[in-house]
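Technical note accompanying the year-one report. For the benefit of new consortium partners, we illustrate the data format agreed upon in the data management plan: each record pairs a sequence with a structure-token string. No post-processing was applied to the example shown here.
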Amino acid sequence: MTLSTKYPTNPVASQRHVIINVDDLGLSNAVNEAVIALGGMRHIRSTSYMAGGEISDSQIRSLTALDIDIGLHLDFTAIYPSSIKNSLSAIIIASYLRRLKRHEIIDIIHRQLDGFEDRFNQHPVFIDGHQHVHQFPVVRDCLATVLKDRYAVSNRAQPYVAARITTPLVNDMKSWIIYILGGHAWKQLCQHSGIHTNLCFGGAYDFDASQDKLAKLWDGWLSRCPKSTEVKNNDATITHRTRLPLIMCHPAIPDNNWQDEIKDAREQEYQWLISDAFAALCKKYAVRSVGW
């Protein structure tokens, strides 16, 4: 069952348009193939490419054919080699103590964007951060500066690359911890800078995944997504850059040729997202997966 073939005929006003984003594109072939498979089912329309990742030309062509929005997954803590690469805790401490050097952060952001544009031959549709580094002190100011300098055009003050914010969709501890670590300040900075964002953010959990647990989590996330009001034509294309709820996920197809600390959870997520149960839940809440 797919969302395109088994979708409810609800009026537009009762539908929920949701950005379901796969993080970590490029981390492994298993992640890349999961994005393509889910895009083919129309279960996702958005993914963020991990700076320093790998993806084949044929996989890029598949994503293009599927009209998947691709963003940059800014990375200071995982696979991208840089002078500041460190553990998440070390980056948090350095950012809050203002020990990160502004010129160094700006240079790394530009280099990651350069790498993205060279690989995909286009600018990213949006930007987010691995482990949400994009919203930390110093980093967020540098990122806003880069987006305005790099992607604003002469007749338009606002940058046309969007950014993810982490305003909690549901009232759970992990979502609030993420948001407390710079989320409110980043949201305000985006508003001040005219950077388009999502409305709210879901998908955070402890990666101790099972099908039953994922079913309960997704029921909570999807049921709390607000209903949409403005679309055009019959393909649910948003008439303007409406701020929409975003749910992140981290699926990967089953594959024994790579390892990752949340590999089991990734494979559980993939099985959930291709399941009839997931499609039925989307039908129950009239959810349509859309891009930015």
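Partners are asked to follow this layout when depositing records. The radius of gyration is 18 Å.
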